Amino acid sequence: MMKKSLVIGFLGAALALAPLSVYAKGAVGTIVTAEGQSTGTITWRNSAREYIVATDNSRITIPADDVVDIRVKRPAELDAAIKKVKAGGAGVSSAIPTLKTIVDDYSHLTYDREAARWLAEANLAQGNAAAAVKACEDIIRNDEEAAYKGPMAIAYWRALSKDGKGARLNTLLNKAIASGDQTAAAHALVQRGNAAMDRGSAAVNCKEALSDGYLRVILLYSDQTEAYAEALYMGAKAFDGMQQGARADKLRQKLKAECPTSEWARK
Predict the structure, then answer these.
(1) Average pLDDT of 185-211?
(2) Residues 33, 68: contact at Cβ < 8 Å?
(3) Cα gap 238→128, rounded to integer Å
(4) Is the dihedral angle over the CA atoms 59, 29, 19, 116 positive or is it negative?
(5) Which residues contact 3 (CB under 8 A, 6 or more apart)?
(6) Rounded to an integer, what distance in angstroms lies between the CA atom of residue 226 and that of residue 6?
(7) How many CB atoms lie within 10 A of CB 60?
(8) 153: how many CB neighbours lie within 10 A of its CB?
(9) Alpha carbon 129 to chain centroid distance?
(10) What CA–CA distance (Å, rounded) separates 15 from 8?
(11) CA-to-CA distance for 53 and 99, rounded, in angstroms?
(12) Is the CB of residue 264 less than 8 Å from the CB of residue 232?
């Protein structure tokens, strides 16, 4: 019995002293618990659902359930990578490795979800919907709510639509609409319209996109500025597809008048 206890104790000590290279690179920051706070290089260990906080002289583990707050500095490379993705062109390819590194290093450290969102956008820009789906699902695997709430969910829905995963998409859109989150619901309705448009520009698809998506946002969610602007822009395209140019022009005028600073108004 004593021998078994010594072996377990030795293994526990060896694990606690394992080099950080065993885990993700991590980030310098502070974890706050009910008992106090710990500052150092923070990494996430998924198998044990715990954080490791390391300094030059110590290493402690903190179960995820004990964490009240996590404070880490925004990675310096993130904004530059996002800018490349938004700009499009050749810069998108160079942004992908940076975003992948941030997703890995900041696992469960605030910025992994944002980096994954833009990694998905980068892959979509390159026509690789399957890679975009994977980028999001690597996060969703440990955070199911990310599939139907928040900015990453929007990129995930677009990727699912482009990758032909309509059943999964519809389930998540329905969940977002029923969630009570107004932002999630508005974006889900826009994506419902986009999914219909992804099937082609036939009048029947345009009509479905308007009735099931864009017009609902225009009528019910004008306070959700980002979704509202996209609904106006895409709604105009849908009316164009139905050969109703006057109604399309009306939505475009509304977009420029009510959302003049939106990226959709500049398209």
Answers:
(1) 95
(2) yes
(3) 25
(4) positive
(5) none
(6) 60
(7) 14
(8) 25
(9) 14
(10) 11
(11) 23
(12) yes
pLDDT computed for residue 238 by the predictor: 98
Domain 74-163: assigned CATH number:
1.25.40
Query: Residues, the chain, total?
Result: 267
In the structure encoding, which two tokens stand for residue 33, read together? 């618990």
| pLDDT tens column, 92-114 | 999 999 999 999 999 999 999 99
Give the pLDDT confidence of 28-64 residue by residue, as tens digits.
999 999 999 999 999 999 889 999 999 989 999 999 9
pTM, full prediction: 0.81
CATH class for the region spanning 13-72: mainly beta
Q: Read off the amino acid at residue 94.
A: S
Strands of the chain, DSSP E: 27-33, 36-45, 50-54, 59-63, 67-72
Q: Please state, in angstroms and rounded to a whole number, the distance separating the CA atoms of residues 36 and 73.
A: 19
Q: Which amino acid is at 78?
A: L
Q: At which residue do the structure tokens 């995820």 appear?
A: 64
**What residues are paired with 36 via a beta bridge?**
33
Contact 213, 198 (CB under 8 A): no
Q: How far apart are CA 120 and CA 18, in angstroms?
A: 33
Give me the residue label for tokens 């004008």: 222
Which of 11-25 are b and which e, b meaning 16 or more Cβ less than 10 Å from the residue's Cβ? eeeeeeeeeeeebbe
- Amino acid identity for residue 14 in this structure: A
Residue 124 host element (H or E)? helix 112-125
Separation of CA 248 from chain center? 31
